[in-house]
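Quick one, tokens below:
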């Protein structure tokens, strides 16, 4: 991993800290609405994970290394002995799990959103999305609207296009570049979809495991391995929600966080 620390945005001025870890193609600011909804009782650290947002790019997708990078960036902002609550969605949920397992002294409450501690699931959708983005000719691109129009064929859902196009940034010379390391993510999708061996580790703090009712990322066969790693897990399934629970049902999600984080 890079010697440069991860990009972290701090919101709020008082209360315990909540660390938010986004999913694939995301950025820390994806959780800004949720973080604002936790004020003034909690303050937040919105992390750009490696190869995303304003954080450094790497040579490999490595979940334990990502967790250690998050630990380093977060601990640099804390008083000695201070703990944080951690919320991770999808890929960020896997990083959050590894963070709690590798650095349990840092984590108070843990929230895992629509992901399980397991390898598997089809990478076909993500491979398609990455291929579509890679096919966009940035050298001749005139505007973000042109990019949206060019992607409308392969990516028909306008909400998904809008989310992905948040990764498109103007360069100082007026050109365009991707904020996410698309080439690496495409080459190592199997690693993104995987989950490392944790050698019998476990985390005995309170865990809220949130799933979207219309998503299949959390399945019955995942319950046993989840509880083996996190014995104090309670499950919550959010109605009328798919994989992006926090953006599809923000009020329900924020209220669930408020109740869980305030509990002993």
């Amino acid at each position: 991993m890079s010697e440069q620390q991860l990009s972290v945005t701090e919101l709020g001025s008082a209360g315990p800290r909540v660390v938010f870890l986004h999913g694939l193609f995301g950025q820390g600011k994806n959780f800004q609405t949720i973080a604002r909804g936790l004020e003034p009782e909690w303050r937040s650290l919105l992390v750009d994970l490696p190869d995303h947002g304003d954080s450094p790019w790497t040579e490999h997708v490595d979940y334990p290394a990502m967790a250690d990078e998050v630990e380093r960036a977060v601990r640099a902002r804390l008083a000695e002995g201070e703990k944080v609550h951690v919320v991770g969605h999808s890929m960020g949920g896997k990083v959050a799990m590894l963070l709690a397992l590798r650095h349990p002294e840092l984590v108070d409450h843990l929230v895992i959103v629509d992901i399980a501690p397991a390898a598997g699931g089809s990478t076909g959708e993500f491979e398609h999305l990455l291929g579509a983005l890679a096919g966009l000719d940035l050298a001749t691109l005139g505007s973000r609207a042109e990019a949206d129009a060019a992607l409308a064929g392969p990516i028909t859902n306008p909400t998904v296009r809008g989310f992905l196009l948040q990764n498109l940034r103007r360069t100082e010379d007026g050109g365009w570049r991707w904020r996410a390391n698309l080439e690496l993510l495409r080459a190592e999708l199997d690693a993104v979809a995987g989950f490392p061996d944790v050698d019998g580790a476990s985390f005995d703090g309170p865990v809220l495991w949130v799933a979207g009712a219309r998503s299949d990322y959390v399945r019955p066969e995942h319950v046993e391995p989840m509880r083996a790693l996190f014995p104090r897990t309670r499950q919550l399934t959010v109605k009328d929600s798919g994989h992006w629970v926090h953006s599809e049902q923000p009020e329900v999600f924020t209220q669930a966080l408020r109740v869980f984080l305030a509990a002993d």
